[in-house]
Amino acid sequence: MKNEAEFRDFLLNGHLYYVPHVSIDCAIFGYHDQQLKLLLIRNRFVNGWCLPGGYILRTETLGQAASRIVRERTGVDNLFLQQFKTFGDPDRAQISKFDEARWFELTGLRDGKKSWLIDQTISVGFYAITDFSKTVLHTDFISAETAWFDIDRLPRLEFDHDAMVKEAMHTLRLQLYHYPIGYNLLPAKFTLTEIRALYETLLGKKLDVSNFPKKLIALGLLNKLSEKRSIGAHRSPHLYSFNKTRYNQALKEGIVLS
Amino acid sequence: MKNEAEFRDFLLNGHLYYVPHVSIDCAIFGYHDQQLKLLLIRNRFVNGWCLPGGYILRTETLGQAASRIVRERTGVDNLFLQQFKTFGDPDRAQISKFDEARWFELTGLRDGKKSWLIDQTISVGFYAITDFSKTVLHTDFISAETAWFDIDRLPRLEFDHDAMVKEAMHTLRLQLYHYPIGYNLLPAKFTLTEIRALYETLLGKKLDVSNFPKKLIALGLLNKLSEKRSIGAHRSPHLYSFNKTRYNQALKEGIVLS
DNA sequence: TCTTCATCTAGTAATTTTTACTAAATAACG
DNA sequence: CGTTATTTAGTAAAAATTACTAGATGAAGA
Fold first, then answer.
1. Each residue of B70-125: pLDDT tens digit?
2. Among A91, A255, B172, B197, which is most exposed with the fewest C-beta within 10 angstroms?
3. B97, burial (CB in 10 Å: exposed 0-12, middle 13-18, buried 19+)
4. In the structure, how far is the CA atom of residue A177 from the C1' atom of nucleotide C8, in angstroms?
5. A192-253 CATH pick, 1.20.58.340, 3.30.420.40, 1.10.10.10, 1.10.3720.10
6. Measured between beta carbons, which residues in chain B are less than 8 angstroms from residue A25?
7. Which nucleotide is closest to A232, CA to C1'?
8. What is the DSSP string of B121-144?
9. CATH 3.40.50.720 is the classification of domain B4-176
10. Does B22 sit within 8 Å of A62, measured CB to CB?
11. Do A62 and B88 touch (CB under 8 A)?
């Protein structure tokens, strides 16, 4: 959605190529240096912060739509997106709040309430994690701003997106115990302390300095490299990389992390 | 949907009180005496077996809709329904298969392809477990037949419902390890062998005769009663009941079953 | 009545996993 | 070269899981 012409066509004819009444919203978590952030956009129409979201093309699967939406709206590409829950409470979109005057001001169109967009919508929630330091954000006609927010300093979100974030976080943490993560969140070579810090940040709690890395190694997820990293006036920790075979197997079959 | 008049109104005006493009499908598992079954309906229009499904009223939450749909279509009431996944592949409904002649024969309406029903639909999947011996099935205008099928003798299902069942089963088994079940599946008083058989049937594998019940007791889920059950020429096993307090707590907080 | 038999279940031993703790190795700095 | 903070191997203690044994039991049948 680059310009007003495209946007006008979307408003008038969108229902022909998108599935009406169904949207997708994505909770994109970003990690870097023990900081956990969430990607939000400020929607030009509701004038508040939301999860990046959009509609499903009639030719797409839900996963493909989620991928495209995040790419278009935020510039973040190639994410591992995971469906977590679908939201459909009748009051979630708060159609009653619709402001006809503001709609006209922004779109130049009358009869906003008859638009295919302004009707009850069920939303499929996806979540993902990425390294926020590697992303290049951009905006489009709908998202006036795109930004990473500290996970414990989020603004109030529009619609039911607060509940979505809570649910996404809950699912993410449950899944952390059953599936490996880190492949796109850490450099190719990392220390045991770095991967432990990653898990601690995502889980929001301390893990054992010695036992947790041993568990990862016992599961066969890590390859010990001969190189070391220099960290100043301390013993240099070994570098590790992921054992890609074992990692992918764990993604399929699941693991048990204590 | 009791009669043709109601059904005709549904065809013509359904989009006014239902949310178009979104449906709900329910995988209702039934347990009794070490048998696991699945509730299916034979849909009068596609002329094949499907999961019971329907549309969402514009005033309902997803959960309320799922409850109502199962009650209306099958007669089973008051189920604990759990959302498990949303399905939206563009080819899942196989609109291409639509048969205009058959549509006219059944509905007396021309222009079937313009109906709000015959358009791409995204479906939210719910699952539940109940005691099939306690249910009283009935049919309606859409479901020509309603029946319990043995889980390993299912007929080929229409649409993508085979995949839905597989996914529902997968989620159910994962959740069995984290949440207690049995409250509506066993009599108020039951033996350790009976509850073990329940878990064995649902998980599809053998559990230790001695250790598994000990685990349930250790978790505080069971009350030992003073009564016993007579099972013929053998030692009479003790009867147990659920500790409702601990059971509900486990539902909220989760447990770990080995 | 007494033996037989299949099942239930308490008890415990063996094993594995988890958790807690100790101390040696080490790299850079002053 | 001693100091210092960190990494990490190693092991001991505790807990949980799994495997196994044997007595208890209730009814059927001799």
1. 898 888 888 889 999 999 999 887 665 667 777 787 777 777 777 787 778 999 99
2. A91
3. exposed
4. 37
5. 1.10.10.10
6. none
7. C28
8. -EEEEEEEEEEGGG------SSEE
9. no
10. no
11. yes
